[in-house]
Amino acid sequence: MAVAPPNDISGHAPADPLAAGDHPAPDPNARERPAPRYDRIAVIVNPAAGQDRPILGILNRAFHAAKVDWDVFVTKKAGDGQRYTRQAIEAGYPAVAVYGGDGTVGEVTSALVGTDVPLAIFPGGTANVMSVELGIPGDLEEACALVFNGAGRLRKIDVGQIGDQVFMLRVGIGFEAEMVEGADREKKDRFGTLAYALSALQALREPTMARYHLTLDGQLRETEGMTCIIANTGSLGRTNLTLASAISVSDGLLDVIVVRRSDLPSLLSVAASVLTGSGNPAPLQHWQAREITVQVEPQQSVTVDGEMVEVNPISVRVLPQALSVIVPVTADPVS
């Protein structure tokens, strides 16, 4: 079967029907509504999250003053977040909150997808990418206040699915996975988000190039690069710092980005584009699709929301507006 040549969206190639920006934008009013005041909530806490602070004391002070009945569930191992969330749903809690990093948030999300129970995110990890994406304050007491003082609204967002696993952020193949793999817990505890930058420099010493065979909503694309990213959110964990401006967490689409070259000028071009928000540079290719399959030659490492996984084939799909999240009323719905 003939394979269509790859196209970028830098203005130098013919229009691609799957190129970012060619899909109609959804109606933002269809996915947002005011959040009720919750007087009872289950809070799932990961004590090993990246930030060292007296979490229980802060929660108790915030919820006691607001007369909110709250119960805490402390995770000890992988899978606890998902298990406690299911127990909370069965017990009839009207909302579930999670304190931790993006990994813990993802675990809780996997149990909430498809239910009417909303998620409150209390940022406590190293990067907190999803909370930055949604405008949730990093201050814990301010994040708690979204639950009970009328400062919150409910926003429907998309999630992705790879195999049986649900993800909120993205799937990284190649360089991104190598970067995550190199930033272990010890480095993150010691250096914070700088651990990822140090790991990236290490991975760039000998970057692995690969050929990606992409099936995007049934259409074939083929290209080469150092990394392939399937993104639900474009946020890089800092306000206004995003992989690409066209990426939205509420558009019913996933974004496929391939960094084609690993030479220094190309990477500086990508970095400058990310920092200035000036659009996609030539080293990037960017498509959007609802169902995606990736075959890689040679095989590369894969990460899902910052966790290393073994998956073959790499088949991903979007679950549109599958999760309700409590976000600030004042947060700009930019994605």
UniProtKB/TrEMBL annotation:
<protein>
    <recommendedName>
        <fullName>DAGKc domain-containing protein</fullName>
    </recommendedName>
</protein>
<dbReference type="InterPro" id="IPR045540">
    <property type="entry name" value="YegS/DAGK_C"/>
</dbReference>
<dbReference type="InterPro" id="IPR016064">
    <property type="entry name" value="NAD/diacylglycerol_kinase_sf"/>
</dbReference>
<dbReference type="Pfam" id="PF19279">
    <property type="entry name" value="YegS_C"/>
</dbReference>
<dbReference type="GO" id="GO:0008654">
    <property type="term" value="P:phospholipid biosynthetic process"/>
</dbReference>
<dbReference type="InterPro" id="IPR004363">
    <property type="entry name" value="Methylgl_synth"/>
</dbReference>
<dbReference type="InterPro" id="IPR005218">
    <property type="entry name" value="Diacylglycerol/lipid_kinase"/>
</dbReference>
<feature type="region of interest" description="Disordered">
    <location>
        <begin position="1"/>
        <end position="36"/>
    </location>
</feature>
<dbReference type="GO" id="GO:0008929">
    <property type="term" value="F:methylglyoxal synthase activity"/>
</dbReference>
<dbReference type="InterPro" id="IPR001206">
    <property type="entry name" value="Diacylglycerol_kinase_cat_dom"/>
</dbReference>
<dbReference type="GO" id="GO:0005829">
    <property type="term" value="C:cytosol"/>
</dbReference>
<dbReference type="GO" id="GO:0019242">
    <property type="term" value="P:methylglyoxal biosynthetic process"/>
</dbReference>
<dbReference type="GO" id="GO:0005524">
    <property type="term" value="F:ATP binding"/>
</dbReference>
<feature type="domain" description="DAGKc">
    <location>
        <begin position="36"/>
        <end position="166"/>
    </location>
</feature>
<dbReference type="InterPro" id="IPR017438">
    <property type="entry name" value="ATP-NAD_kinase_N"/>
</dbReference>
<dbReference type="Pfam" id="PF00781">
    <property type="entry name" value="DAGK_cat"/>
</dbReference>
<dbReference type="GO" id="GO:0016301">
    <property type="term" value="F:kinase activity"/>
</dbReference>
